[in-house]
Amino acid sequence: MSASAKVEQPQAKFRLDYQAPDFTITDVDLEFDLDDQHTLVQATSKVKRVSSQQDAALCLAGESLKLLSVSVNGELWSDYQHDEHELRLFHLPDEFELCIQTEINPSANTALEGLYKSGDAFCTQCEAEGFRRITYFLDRPDVLARYQTRVIADAKQYPFLLSNGNKIDEGVLTDGRHWVQWQDPHPKPSYLFALVAGDFDVLRDQFTTMNGRQVALEIFVDKGNLDRAPHAMASLQNAMKWDEERFGLEYDLDIYMIVAVDFFNMGAMENKGLNVFNSKFVLANPQTATDDDYLGVEAVIGHEYFHNWTGNRITCRDWFQLSLKEGLTVFRDQEFSSDLGDRTVNRINNVRIIRGPQFAEDASPMSHPIRPDQVIEMNNFYTLTVYEKGSEVIRMMHTLLGEEKFQAGMRLYVERHDGTAATCDDFVAAMSDASGVDLTQFKLWYSQSGTPNLMVTSSYDAQQQQFNLTVTQQTKPTADQSEKVALHIPLRIALYDQKTGAPVALMSQGQSVDPVLNVTQETQSFQFDCTSPVIVSLLDDFSAPVTLSYDYSDDDLAMLMRHATSPYARWDASQQLLAKHVRRLVADYQAGVELSLPYTVGQSFLHIIEDESLAPALIAEVMTLPSENEIAGWFDVIDVDAIAHVRRFIRACFAQHWETTLQALYHDLQPAADDFSHQAIGERCLKNNALAYLALLPANSKWVEVHFEQAGNMTDTMAAMTAANSAMLSCREQLMQSFSDRWQQDGLVMDKWFMLQGTNPAQNCLANVEAVKSHPAFDMKNPNRVRSLIGSFVNNNPVYFHALDGSGYQFLVEALIQLNTANPQVASRLIDPLLKYRRYDEPRQVLMRQALEQLAGLDNLAKDLFEKINKALDV
Length: 875
Ligand code: TRP
Ligand code: ZN
Fold this sequence. Notes:
- The chain is built from 27 helices and 34 strands.
- The protein is α+β, with helices and mostly antiparallel strands.
- The longest helix is centred in the middle third of the chain and has 34 residues, at about 385-415.
- The protein has an 8-stranded mixed β-sheet, with no helix packed on it. The protein has a 5-stranded mixed β-sheet with strand order 17-18-19-21-20, with helices on one face. Strands 10-11-16-13 form a 4-stranded antiparallel β-sheet, with no helix packed on it.
- Keywords: Aminopeptidase, Hydrolase, Metal-binding, Metalloprotease, Protease, Zinc.
């Protein structure tokens, strides 16, 4: 930074500084004259003064806009000031019509926020604060207005002109352009505005609501992609039906549109009546999409649809309340996936995200409560904490209230707040008022950041025939908060006879006890009647987002793996058994001791793998080791090489031990390639897991090539390539080449290939990743490409990202310098692994700090990166 021109530093906003606006806007009339570089926007708003402060100026947010004119009640208005971020109008009447004309440049908009071009189409992304890149506005979620939108564009290039609500009129102009007029009857905040213009193929269907209303459903995809849209349509219909059945919530417009675009910063966006989706979460057919992609489409389609009530009808008062809509909507989409598919497998996958990346975020410089207290760049707070931990907080309320009272709470919440902008406090109040459950202490989950640890000890008193459990909770200080208090933690437990594994009823002094214990104090004891020694299963179903310290013996864990009545608890016991041995082996590796894994460990797993009463998808989860990142979270100082080595060692041990069973699984499971039922998906997952282990055994690895050649869908193709990649088989290059030959025209499919390049465990990985950047399908401007190649390398290839020569860090710095100007949102997500430098050994810390300082010195550092780098370097 030059000493003379000291740039103004971005300022934080604070939750407690919230003030209601001085003005509101009740109606907006928008007109867009679309052009690649010179789009004209005219916004005509009905504005009302709502505060008693008669002299208050009207301050409208605006970014990267060219202001053409301002008029009030039809007269040109000059009593204003404006700068880079704001337009301030003075001496205004109490009620008036404001008309503002601006010009914007969509084709220069590589940040993908506001109005931009995705390929040949125009589209918008307004959450959180993108509407201010379209026009000067009260761009805050507590200003709810009725929108009318007229879109004008060339008829040939843009036959479809879409916006929120219902189409009320259309016409053609003499110069080859045409126009469409849209009207959205539901008042909404500006972040839910959307506009799309382009040429698409459309999949049309319909849905009849529980009250018999017909809703037209339309999915817009790039020309030629119609055969990839039916799964999204089926998912939408399932979501609409599910929300009626489980939550009693019905859709409220006559039309629901989804547009798939290739350039998108996130997963999808719930704009009223016109969702815009990353094409990754719409397009799927058996040739192009894996089973996980199918499930991802179902979940995201559900998520955006569920926002119609939890987000759109009831929105957020301010952005600090983001978890009000996101935590709740993630909870709803998780329940949707669980009701339609395998509940335990869904739970396991959600728990893996909390225990891996969410716990890591909690322990990082970016640590924040699910309702943050201070924000510089709102886009930085669309986080795992707000979304996934936010969902866990809703889930805990569901656990404490039970389904019936939870639904009563939801009804009260809707009754009280429909059509308004609400707060997290409002939600909890509705839950507690409707149920009579006191949530006063529970609410601390909204304000306290960090991950509580539960230290549990137990003892059996043979004389008293009593089992004692002592629970101590502790939350370590986080980067944002040094003082922590005791939380209300629902702790679900079960008891099993230590000798037989038979379930033991939970009783205390002759009375039966609820399996969910209320842990509310720092230390608390619980007693249970038992006639013989028991094994306790703790935190069943992951009843709270906490870590657990309890000294299980291998035998007790093996017993739980075999006999626990909850399939979740069986999986969790298997993970705890692994965790014990991973920790021990890492220490052995560091001490130079030869590694060995007791035969009994592999044997305990084999019992589960061979248990025919279990769903194949669940067995597949049991066989899946925790990721290197999740394991890293267990250590104060992360030893990337030791962790990678130990994880590979355990996989090799298991492959040898289980060889016969793996072969049988691989050859016996024969799901049809075109069967996408949950059963078939589970069977493929198990079969392909078996293949991944077999690939580690030279005598069996030949099956990988056979699998690739015989693959009848993308899941099997990818299973072969993934196995070849992680086992570093000699056939890898050939499979990769053949895939690229077939799919190089299709960026979305090539993302899978880029991801395998990024996670390649071979020595030359980084050089290869560098080379792949010039592959014709790679495009630094496309967030999906960046995430699949660069994101997978920095997040999921720790050994090379953390190479001791600093090459991985420098590679990231170079990408970030480019993205900082081109797309700050994508840059800001990519930097996360670098922020965690304090967790590594000294030499790596030095290199990572240097990389951060290098970025901090950029003279055009975007707010997004500024906020994160400053936090990381500051503490
Ligand atoms: N509300 C969106 C969702 O959760 C999130 C989202 C989509 C978003 N695009 C964004 C957030 C861009 C910030 C910026 O479904
Ligand atoms: Zn959402």
